[in-house]
User: What shape does this take?
Amino acid sequence: MAEGKKLRITQVKSAIGRKADQGATLKSLGLGKIGRSVEKVDNECVRGMVFKVKHLVEVEEL
Assistant: This one.
C-alpha cells in the first residue's frame, strides 16, 4: 500500500437491523446515511473496518 493511496467509501445500504458493532463501524468511518461518501487513507486499519461492513458499502481506489 503506497503512501498517499486513498479509498472512496460510499454507504449503499442501511445499518438498520444489523448488529450494533456494524453500525458503530460505519459511524467510525464517518458514514451513517445512504449515499454518503468519505475518502480515507488506504491502510490495514481502514481495510479491516471496510471488510466488517463490506455488504453495506462500495469501495473504489483513488
